[in-house]
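Hey team,

Filing this mostly as a record. A colleague (T.K.) asked me to run one chain through the structure pipeline before their review meeting, and I want the input and output archived in the tracker in case anyone asks later how it was produced. No errors, nothing strange. Just documentation.

Input sequence:
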Amino acid sequence: MSHDNHRGRSFVVWNGSVSTQKRLAANGLAANAFIVTNTAAAAAALTWTIISWSHGGKPNAVGIITGGVAGLVAITPASGFVGPVAAIIIGIGAGFFLLLCNAFEIKEDRYR
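Output structure:
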């Protein structure tokens, strides 16, 4: 099994088990949590793609999915309490922060 398939399935599991079952009800809060969770993941994946593309690298599927998962992780604690605009800001911040950490890790490996 490839890693891409595993990460793709984690999006489905995350939405089904973590973000939309905050209150175990099918109401407006659960719908908002579902919307902002996907919005933050998309914003983080798009941020990762744009930044890696602008720095001369070719964006790849693993990087885009990693950015999306970072957006999911960042939005989960706040998913029932923020709106879509805040989710976009959180997603952009998560994608940027993860790419910054990744660049730092690569730079550290060069000095060993």
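Quick notes for T.K.: The two ends are 32 Å apart (CA to CA). The chain has a mean pLDDT of 77.
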